[in-house]
């Protein structure tokens, strides 16, 4: 009888949805992870409060999918078992197919003074970084050009493999993934300069939304070094030429780099506290909303997802059914809409571009911030995408891709 009742409820919910789905190879043996250092470091203790519920609103994405169905069950955050863990909890993680490991030996070099840093050479000579008149007149064409210029983008099956598991509706809370999202990743990925410098930034933040950030001189140095590194890549050089042709930024490249640093790393208020967030933290690292029911906010980067999954902090729970029937994601898909828990707190729907480089994401979101609107319906590579871009004054409040129907 219980099973029958549950089945009738699910049928009724599907009827409420109007019959619509919610938005949303062979391995190269040489590419499997055999890295020297397992990522197992505990999160830095910034003295922040333990997770607790207050009152507030849902994330932008959850608002898009939420229906008037208060009867839907919601998963509750797990109780803390260790009062001395700075609000973090150990997630009982399902077994991965392969240990996630990251080679971090070269990261010590990033702690040197800026004038002692070693950067990669200038942009690849094969890159045509001059925007055409057609691209200057069409944001979608410009974003697609950035996809073509992303020489650092990874190739599914060669550089990594994912297992999407089974699909689900946004409101469903059953775990539809037996293992991790990432099965393996090439050992050389985090030796790439922009990837490695990006990773060095991820532990600079307190995940509690509304908790004031304290930025050290070394962290400022890491931010400047990251911007310097990506500024030598084709997507960022193209971005500069595009924005300067539009009269938005100076033709002086040093001034442009300062603009990028300010746009992505300057602190602003979120959750009622000043200097508690930044565009980089929200979009790439993620935050835990403390107002109302706890929820993960932001967190749209696949590298951060991979690393947190490696540490057992992320529990991947399946992909969200796409609106287009038959368009089911597989190991080759690079635009994913998924559900997961981060430190026991639910992200009911999230979207990310898998395998793209840090410089590519910085470029597309910056371009949309300056020349797009809140919705930017474009085509990037093989994917029709709506790049959502929310503003907080003159800063990026949030930016992420959504699969267009």
UniProtKB/TrEMBL annotation:
Q: What is this protein called?
A: EndoU domain-containing protein
Matches recorded under Pfam families: XendoU
Q: Does the keyword Acetylation belong to this entry? A: no
Annotated GO molecular function terms are:
endonuclease activity; hydrolase activity; lyase activity; metal ion binding; RNA binding; RNA nuclease activity
Q: According to the UniProt entry, which residue ranges have a biased composition of type Basic and acidic residues?
A: 15-32, 57-81, 104-115
Origin superkingdom: Eukaryota
Q: Which InterPro entries does UniProt cross-reference here? A: ENDOU, EndoU-like, EndoU_C
Cofactor section: Mn(2+)
This protein's assembly is summarised as: Monomer.
Where the record annotates domain EndoU, the positions are 135-405
């Amino acid at each position: 009888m219980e099973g029958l009742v549950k089945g009738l409820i699910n049928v009724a919910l599907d009827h409420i949805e109007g019959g619509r789905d919610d938005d949303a190879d062979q391995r190269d043996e040489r590419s499997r992870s055999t890295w020297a250092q397992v990522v197992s470091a505990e999160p830095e203790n910034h003295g922040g409060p333990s997770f607790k519920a207050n009152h507030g609103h849902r994330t932008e994405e959850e608002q898009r999918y939420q229906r008037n169905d208060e009867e839907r069950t919601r998963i509750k955050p797990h109780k803390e078992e260790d009062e001395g863990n700075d609000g973090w909890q150990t997630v009982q993680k399902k077994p991965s197919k392969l240990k996630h490991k990251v080679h971090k030996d070269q990261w010590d070099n990033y702690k040197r003074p800026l004038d002692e840093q070693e950067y990669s050479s200038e942009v690849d000579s094969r890159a045509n970084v001059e925007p055409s008149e057609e691209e200057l007149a069409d944001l979608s064409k410009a974003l697609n050009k950035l996809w073509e210029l992303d020489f650092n983008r990874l190739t599914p099956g060669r550089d990594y493999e994912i297992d999407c598991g089974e699909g689900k509706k946004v409101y469903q809370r059953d775990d539809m993934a037996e293992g991790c999202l990432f099965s393996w990743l090439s050992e050389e990925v985090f030796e790439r300069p922009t990837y490695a410098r990006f990773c060095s930034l991820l532990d600079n933040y307190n995940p509690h939304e509304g908790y004031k950030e304290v930025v050290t001189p070394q962290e400022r140095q890491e931010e400047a070094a990251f911007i310097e590194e990506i500024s030598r890549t084709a997507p960022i050089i193209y971005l500069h030429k595009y924005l300067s042709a539009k009269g938005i930024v100076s033709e002086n490249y040093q001034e442009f780099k300062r603009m990028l640093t300010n746009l992505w790393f300057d602190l602003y208020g979120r959750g009622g506290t000043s200097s508690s967030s930044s565009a980089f933290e929200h979009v790439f690292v993620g935050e835990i909303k403390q107002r109302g029911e706890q929820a993960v906010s932001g967190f749209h980067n696949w590298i951060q997802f991979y690393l947190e999954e490696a540490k057992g902090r992320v529990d991947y729970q399946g992909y969200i059914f796409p609106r287009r029937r038959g368009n089911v994601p597989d190991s080759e898909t690079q635009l994913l809409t998924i559900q997961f828990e981060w430190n026991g707190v639910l992200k009911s729907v999230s979207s990310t571009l898998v395998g793209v480089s840090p410089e590519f994401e910085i470029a597309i979101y910056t371009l949309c911030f300056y020349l797009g609107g809140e919705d930017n319906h474009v085509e990037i590579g093989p994917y029709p995408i709506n790049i959502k871009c929310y503003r907080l004054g003159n800063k990026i409040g949030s930016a992420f891709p959504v699969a267009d129907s």
